[in-house]
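Continuing the batch. This is chain 6 of the set; chains 1 through 5 are on the previous pages. Same settings as before, nothing changed between runs. Recording input and output for traceability.
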Amino acid sequence: MELITVLLRRKTVFVLTVIFVSLFSVLVAYQITPRFEATVRIKKEQTVNESIQAWMWPRRARSDLYGELRSLQSESLFETTMERLGLDQDAEFNGSMLRSWADHLISLDIFWPVVRYFRSLTGQNGKRNTTRTDNHSVATGILMDTMTTRLDTSGLGPSLDTVDRNASRNFDGSIVSKVYSVTAKSVDPQKAADIANTFADVYMTNEIQQRVRDIRVARTRSGYRRKQLLAAITDSERAIDNLLSSRVLVGDGYNVASARLAVAKADYAEQKMRLAHVQNLLESGQRIIAMKEAQRSPLIQRLRAREARLLHQIGEFGQVIGERHPKLQNLRAKLSTTRRGIGEEQIKFVQELESELRVAGARVRTHLGELKFLDAQRRASSRDLGRLRHLQREVEVKEKIYEKYVRELEESATNVPLENEVLYRIISPAVASVASIYPHRSKIMTLGFFVSLGLGTILVLVFERSDSGFRSAAQVVSTIGIPVLGIIPELASAEKDGRAPSDAILTAPGSPYSEAIRSVRTALTLTNIDAPPKIILVASALPGEGKTSLSVSLARHAAMSSVSGKVILVDCDLRRPTVSGVMRLRANAGLTELLTGQADLDEVLKTDPRSGLHVLPAVSGHHSPADILNSQSMRDLLAQLSTNYDLVIIDSPAIDSVSDSRILAHMAHATIFVVQWLVTPRAKVIDSLRKLTSAGGRNAAVVLQGAEPVKRGRLGLSQYQRA
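Output for chain 6:
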């Protein structure tokens, strides 16, 4: 909303900017030389020949497409097109052909004698040069760059994915087709069509000739390929013969070794189990002489028999003789010796079992190594057998390829014409266009219009920011944080009629000026409804900002609106008193005489006959106005006036010039700070208000004076009239 208000306020700048930029964009759009384009479409149909290209087409489809698009941008094509059409002598494509107005003037016959005379003075040939210039090569290079820039070659046929699918599907020899477009641009529509058609013709001719050369080269390479295939077949057959002669086949030795290993592992497991059983018996404290293997030992059998006999004898003698009998002790000693012998034999038996287990393990390892050796031989034999089969299949395939290759080469050499493998034709020739493609006038004008809107807005904001003064109440509040009582408009010439602005309160009470004064007084009263200010100081930062006019207007309006009519205006500008002059009052004594005791209040007091306003003028100056205003007499006078009157308005000098207003600020109940609209610098306003506040000023508020309603836009007087 604030932006709209600013635009309305600066609508002249905004509208002029929009009009100027828009007209400039229209002028530019219609001054740019129009360009036309013409497009020719070339269709390429290619039959995939298995003998030459079918086997490589699926892998090269993508690269071939890129290569063909690059060939359309070949420099030789542009140069041939240029020579056919003579474009090197065309000023549009050759910048060196452009001549200035001076060149055209010199070329006239009437000026040629003068030119020849000056050339003779410099030693140059005086003959007119009618041949091609020496910078033809430079012009040709410029032309090539121009044509390359203006000639757009792009494939409008299948995409890369489509080409890949066609390549795999058309492997059986079907036709693969592509469409290319060639677009030429020129200031002449017919010239653009001629360039495009000529370029297409040059391209098709070059492609057919290049195709013939490529196929011949391919056939030459095919002969070399045939020799390579024959050499590969010979090498494979030789490898088969060598493999058959050196091949070693493993017979039944692997199976026999495997059986031996199984028997050895079983024997090893049995020996290990017997040893574990014997060790378990020994660990449990049992005897192993009951085992079958132990019973087979003759020594163990004799020791067991002797043990049994000794036990029998000990049993018999134990019943007949006593326990301590020597013979019985001797039998028991023999029994102990016999049992010790049995224990030693058990240890020897375990050692024999361990030895047999080690022998069985060695036997297993021996058979295992033999089996691994035989297995390696068997695998080598299997690999040789697989290689042999692979070589045999490879020889068969190569022989078939070789036979087919030779047969197709013979057929292509006798039956297939080289030129029929690829067919080029123009499916859409270039024609002269009626509508130009450049410039896009509607886009340029639309862009210019939007640019004008943006530029106009920027200029309005720049002008708005460049204002050193205040324009609206919102600016005052946002800048210095002090409320604004109102905006006083500048009086029109019809309202002024050669009189002071304050006279409009009397002569035109319904005018915008009077309504603005009424709004200021109402806002001043509403600052404190219960106890409205009675002593009001009117001050400003600089002289000539209309504070006296505001003081008189506000005092007259208050006097006319007050029920009792007790309003007094005090002129405290002792240096340049102007109140009596504005109100056309004759006064011989004033405030200075009253404060110095030279006159009484009744003697100096004046009354405005038209409004009933009491005025305390200032007639003569004083050598020290600040001292007299800061005196106790001044304080007593203001106290007396505030008691006798409903409203006391004090007109003071400028704050920035003297200190009188700062002295009066702490005596007043409220201060009206007058700021001239768009004139008073903001820095001066801020500095003066700071001085006023530091001096003890209370309830300061701002009034913008002298605003022009037309320039204020929507922030004009109508808002205050509605208030």
